[in-house]
# Entry
Amino acid sequence: MQRGAPWWPRDPWPVRAGAAGTQGAAGSSAGMALSAEDRALVRALWKKLGGNVGVYTTEALERTFLAFPATKTYFSHLDLSPGSAQVRAHGQKVADALSLAVERLDDLPRALSALSHLHACQLRVDPASFPLLGHCLLVTLARHYPGDFSPALQASLDKFLSHVISALASEYR
Amino acid sequence: MGMKGEYYPGKLIGKVLKIFCISNFVSDMVSFHRLLVVYPWTQRFFDSFGNLSSPSAILGNPKVKAHGKKVLTSFGEAIKNMDNLKTAFAKLSELHCDKLHVDPENFKLLGNVMVIILATHFGKEFTPEVQAAWQKLVSAVAIALAHKYH
# Structure
């Protein structure tokens, strides 16, 4: 995957002519706001994941490191070998942040402001990396919940993640 | 761009390809249908396809099915020509640029949707290693398809 070019569309959810939706609190710069259906689908899935979100975010991290090796450059201080406790711990951090996002769908930029500041100013992670992890999380959930992973759920999750990514990148400059 | 390398993708991809080609997966054409549902702006290239007004309309649309089959067949060709993708896809690249006017960003979208479909179908077998090999392939195909753009 080319490092310089983000894989996600330049305008993730362009408002089409005649579309009724307007940008709500969760709209930010990512285009269309999350609809009631999007929120319901995401919340329902999160309820189903229960206490296992960390398991899946850890697997998503492992997939990201293998599929997109350049992302490992941000984790040279961690043991990235398979089954690493440090990767698991980081996976849990990601899980906690995503669960917070699911609870605060109406207010993502504010909910994730501190995390955005951390990634922008201290960690200085290239924001092009976030969609790579987002994609691998979708792959992980598709692999574990194939029966649930309808096109509608995939679309809603994809929108949710793009809003999270947008909130996370909001303090970069 | 050659595919053979540190992931021995031939071996890994071959394992998934055998099942990739079974008739019910091929006839589902789910990747292409899913692209049009999850990223609705991709429908812009298919005005002549008729009813695309809902996910079920897209799923039942015979032209979507037929086009999905074409795309999947092309992918099969890609797997046979992994060391020479740019040449193998040169004509298709020119077609997508000059006649179809498709933004190459869409090739990446379809590639990632295919990876997700593979994950739903193969579950445990779709390990991180297998996914990594497929990401390389879909990325290489996207690059090859964009290669003749001007």
